Structures are given as C-alpha cells and as structure tokens.
Amino acid sequence: QVQLVESGGGLVQAGGSLRLSCAASGRTFSSYAMGWFRQAPGKEREFVAAISWSGNNTYYEDSVKGRFTASRDNAKNTVYLQMNSLKPEDTAAYYCAAAGARFSDYPAGAMVYDYWGQGTQVTVSS
Q: What is the DSSP secondary structure assignment for residue 71, as one 8-state letter?
C-alpha cells in the first residue's frame, strides 16, 4: 500500500504560481512513477503531468506545457508540481497518483495508476 497526501493548493490570481506537493508513505517511493491529474466541477478527470521513477522522464498535457513542471525528491518521498502562469481554466481539484509497471504503457492514463491521494483544490481568479 502507498498513502499519498497532497498539499499546496489555494486561491491565486491569474498569472500567479503555486507549488503542489504530494508526500508518499508506505512502500518504496522510488518504485513508483507518479502522475498529477485534475478534475473541475462537472468535468471528467484529466491528465496533467507525470514523472518516471527516476525523474528523468516527464510528460505533460498540452495545455500546461511550458507552464507546469513535475519533479520528485525520492529521498523525501515527495513529488511536486510547480505551476506558473496560472489561468482560470486551471481551477480544479488536483490529485497525485502512483503507478507501477503499467506506467510505461500509458503515462497519461488514469487506469495505470494504482494509488491516489485525496486531492487539493486550486482556484485561479481572473
């Protein structure tokens, strides 16, 4: 089992920045690739970003490329999502998730992630 706890959400003006953190406990953190997803009210959950086990490979949804950066610190069992140039359309609950071997098949697919956090709300005002 892996427990994931997100933090760092909040209210920010358009153009501002936030850094989300996801702290993991349980089994070996470095054994898991990590993803970030978001879900806005009335919309389906969507992929935002992902980072491989070592952190050498990252993946981003097109709308966040150049604005968001995923990183991880395996020594701290933590993954981060740095969000810059935030837009009102980035408003959503953000979730981190952990994936095992299936990550390589489809990093953007929610179905390959085995464990999920409870989410943290990000609200971007215009």
A: E
Residue 19 backbone phi and psi in degrees, to 5: -125, 120
**Cα 103 to chain centroid, rounded:** 14
pLDDT value at 27 more than 80: no
Quote the CA–CA distance of 89 and 64 in Å, as a whole number: 11
Residues 34/99, Cβ–Cβ less than 8 Å: yes
Number of Cα atoms under 13 Å in the Cβ half of residue 126: 2
Radius of gyration of the chain (CA): 13
Average pLDDT, the chain: 95
Sheet holding 78-83, edge to edge: 2-7, 18-26, 78-83, 68-73
Q: Using CA atoms, how far apart are residues 98 and 29, in angstroms rounded to an integer?
A: 9
* pLDDT (0 to 100) of residue 1: 82
Task: Specify the residue for token string 């935002």.
Answer: 48
Question: Position of tokens 């981003």?
Answer: 60
CB-CB contact of 62 with 49 (8 Å): no
